[in-house]
Amino acid sequence: xxxxxxxxxxxxxxxPPGLRSAFRHDDAGRFAVxxxxxxxxxxxxxxxxxxxxxxxxxxxxxxxxxHAFIVEHPPRSPLLFRYGAGFPDFVExxxxxxxxxxxxDLARLEKAWLDAWHAADAESLDGETxxxxxxxxLPFCRLIAHPAARxxxxxxAIADLFHANREGTGPSRIxxxxxxxxxxxxxxYAVTATTIAEDEAxxxxxxxxxxxxxxxxxEALACKDxxxxxxxxxLVLRSGAFQAVRETDR
Length: 250
What we know:
- The protein is mostly helical.
- It folds into 2 domains: 1-100, no CATH class; 120-250, Outer Surface Protein A, domain 3, CATH 3.90.930.
- The protein has helices at 4-9, 27-49, 51-57, 59-72, 87-93, 103-118, 127-131, 158-166, 198-208, 213-223, 229-239; strands at residues 142-145, 150-154, 180-185, 192-196, 242-246.
- Strand 3 (180-185) and strand 4 form a beta hairpin.
- Helix 3 packs across helix 4 (59-72), helix 3 (51-57) crosses helix 8 (158-166) and helix 5 (87-93) runs antiparallel to helix 6.
- The longest helix has 23 residues, at 27-49.
- The radius of gyration is 23 Å and the shape is elongated.
């Protein structure tokens, strides 16, 4: 029935015509119970994917926002951990959330964290492998990103908000207007969310995009003229954001 799925998620719709239960009575009431269970499950799933977002806005606000989302964006997969990819974009245009402009980027960071958690397994690149490459060859090497590696940038203090509202480890007082960029990775099979500088973000993004070290360093230097290549390479290796290195002539 074409009307079934829309009616299942929208409480303003009536039960689909022709609906019959085995008990043959109060079919609309039984459908309403089922609809409520489906909506509650999806809202609960979103709350588990975006716990920091939920904590900041409160349960009542989050549930209303999540319900509005599921009506417009029903799930396309039976795997609930894949649900909510469009939730951050929805939050960005959700009128009641406009007084919290950082909320959408925080949700993007939370989704990146979950995606990193479910990414394919791979060993992280170690320093010994890089150290074994001849110095003359190093500028032309390309690093292969770990499947879990992600970078989320924002005009707001999303890292502090993330850690404070998910782990209780952020600062007690947060200036949300401070821009932060976060490197999400999964070294040793534990997801990390590390705040990085703008030039470091440019460098790592370039490497993730497949550019050689020399080109990535040049992009970072264009961003900041005192870019520290050595420190950034150390960060790259410690973060676990890359899994291998490919040597090329040019």
